[in-house]
């Protein structure tokens, strides 16, 4: 009953959101929404992860995609390792797409890259780490809002989770965001030290 209820709710919310919903032809609208659910973006992450696993064969990468992301400041044309173990290249190769330069890679579930590198043990370890980071982020956010009444500070506190989790652990293809973030802060620090202190 729970599964059936879930399908009905998913179908109902999709019908409500669908701009092409036709109340005079309900059957046609339902077929269209079902097509969008199964072949659109509703389950795209799970679908892409399944596609990647077809060529994976438990050939664990042991952190190579993460290492490639950490040294992303080195151009791929200079270092062959970067070219071989970039997130997009790895997912494309496992899926059988090959080195198609116009395709940036398949978007897997949040645990997809962790599994490709370290298997189930990696998922347990990284999930535990991210749980602690998320708890720290949440508590810091609440303290900034409740105690200091500072919404901007509360937002800043969430950057820890977004940078470590979203830009590295869950998908290393966006790790360069960390370098951009550090560079912006370094430039801001230099400008503040050089100009603003003198004005006081």
Task: Give an overview in words.
- There is one protein chain.
- α3 packs across α6 and α7 runs antiparallel to α8.
- The chain has 200 residues and is mostly helical.
- The chain has nine helices and no strands.
What are the key terms here?
single chain, 200 residues, mainly alpha, 9 helices, 70% helix, 0% strand
Strand content: under 5%
- Give the N-to-C terminal Cα separation: 68 Å
Report the mean per-residue pLDDT as an integer: 76
Q: What share of residues is helical?
A: over 70%
Low-confidence stretches: none
Count of beta strands: 0
Secondary-structure class: mainly alpha
Largest sheet: none
List the helices and strands in order.
HHHHHHHHH
Q: Tell me, briefly, the overall form.
A: globular
Q: How large, in whole angstroms, is the Cα Rg?
A: 22 Å
Please count the helical segments.
Answer: 9
Blueprint (SSEs and pairs):
Blueprint: H1 2-17, H2 26-39, H3 44-53, H4 64-70, H5 80-85, H6 87-95, H7 112-146, H8 151-169, H9 176-199
Helix pairs in contact: 3-6, 7-8
């Amino acid at each position: 009953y729970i599964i059936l209820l879930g399908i009905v709710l998913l179908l109902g919310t999709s019908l409500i959101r669908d701009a092409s919903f036709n109340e005079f032809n309900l059957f046609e609208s339902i077929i269209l929404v079902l097509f969008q659910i199964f072949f659109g973006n509703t389950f795209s992450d799970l679908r892409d992860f399944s596609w990647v696993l077809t060529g994976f064969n438990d050939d664990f990468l042991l952190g190579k995609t993460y290492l490639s992301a950490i040294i992303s400041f080195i151009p791929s044309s200079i270092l062959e390792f970067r070219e071989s173990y970039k997130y997009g290249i790895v997912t494309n190769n496992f899926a059988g797409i090959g080195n198609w330069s116009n395709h940036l890679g398949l978007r897997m579930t949040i645990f997809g890259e962790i599994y490709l590198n370290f298997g189930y043990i990696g998922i347990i370890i990284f999930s535990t780490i991210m749980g602690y980071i998320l708890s720290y982020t949440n508590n810091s956010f609440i303290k900034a809002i409740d105690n200091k009444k500072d919404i901007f500070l509360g937002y800043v506190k969430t950057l820890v989770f977004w940078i470590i989790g979203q830009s590295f652990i869950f998908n290393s293809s966006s790790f360069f965001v960390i370098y951009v973030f550090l560079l912006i802060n370094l430039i801001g620090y230099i400008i503040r030290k050089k100009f603003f202190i003198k004005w006081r």
